[in-house]
Structure formats: C-alpha cells, structure tokens
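User: Some background: our group keeps a shared notebook of sequences we're curious about, and every so often someone picks one and asks for a predicted structure to add to the entry. Today it's my turn. The entry only has the sequence so far, pasted here. Could you supply the structure so I can complete it?
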Amino acid sequence: MKAGEKMSLREALKKKNMSIYRLSKISGLPYTTVHDIYNNKAQLKKCSAETVYKLARTLGVSMEELLAPSFFKRGSFENFKSAVCHRVRELGDIDFIINTLESGDIRTYYNLQWYPESLYLLGMLDYISRENDIPPDSEYDDLRQCRLEKPIYPSSLLALSAAAGNSSALEEAVKTAIPEFIRFNIVENEVRDII
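Assistant: Of course. Here's the predicted structure to add to the notebook entry:
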C-alpha cells in the first residue's frame, strides 16, 4: 500500500481474508468492539489509540491508513457531482478513468455508506468508458447490481418541477437520462457541458 492511502476496516479485513472474530482474537480486542467498528456503530476516530494500534498492527496497515476514511467530510451531493464533472474535463477521459480506478474512491465511498457518491462515480466511470469504447472494469460488478431506493434528480430540475407545479419535467428527464446513471436511480442528462 502506498503512503497516504486510506483503507477502511472492512476493506482491510477483506484484503487479509480475515473475519471479525479472528481479528478480535488476534488483536486481543473484545469482539463487540471490533463488530461495532465494522458495522459503523462505533467510530474508529473516537476509539483509543491503543485500539487503533492493535487493529492496524493485526491488519498489517498503518494507523494513518486505517483512520483516514474516518476523517472524510461529506459535502452536498450537488457539489460532489460538479467536482466529478470538472475532474473529467480537467483530466480528459482516459486519465479520468485511470485516476478513478487507481484511487479506489468508488469502493471507499461505498464502504462509508455514501451510496449516491459511490454510484455516481461508478456511473461516470462506466459512461466515460462506453464513450471511449473501453470495456468496464470488472472490479465493481457487485456495485453495478445496486440501485438507490429513491431517484436522485438534479436540484435545478427539482426547482423547475416545483415552479411548474407538476412532475412532467422529472418524468421526461428520466426518459432521457444517461443509462449508466439511471440504472442506479440517478437522473443525469448532461455531464460534459458544465460551468
């Protein structure tokens, strides 16, 4: 793992092919402590340094790598979408694909339970890949089966619908949405012409 990388407890366990029970036994930490951290019932960043140290040592990662995901700050989804679209424009399609795959952000967001961000980024990756005739990376096939419970519309479209007093704009947007996004129940019609 490269310096500065981030790895959630869930990812570290998967990488080590280790169960919560085994991590508890080897680290000497109570099972309930490890279980609660794993299931986001306890925040790793609020655990004692000793707990974080024992987990990191047992998993073969640094304390910094294990704690990094705990300190992500979640902004608005609209800002996130805008940042992703700007990153595509700044990097170009191919570098965006490479950067996104190397970063592991799709899985990190998913493991943080930031499902809209994870699936939006995956939708963008798949859309840009299709536009460039690049087959989708199979690493995220499990996430491609996911779908958000409720549709997410752009805020501008919601405002238009509210002003009109009907949902016809929303219904039309769903019909013309980019397939890679709508499969996740994210309504996105334009990602290239951004301000």
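Suggested note for the entry: Residues 115-131 form the longest helix (17 residues). The CA atoms of residues 25 and 31 lie 8 Å apart.
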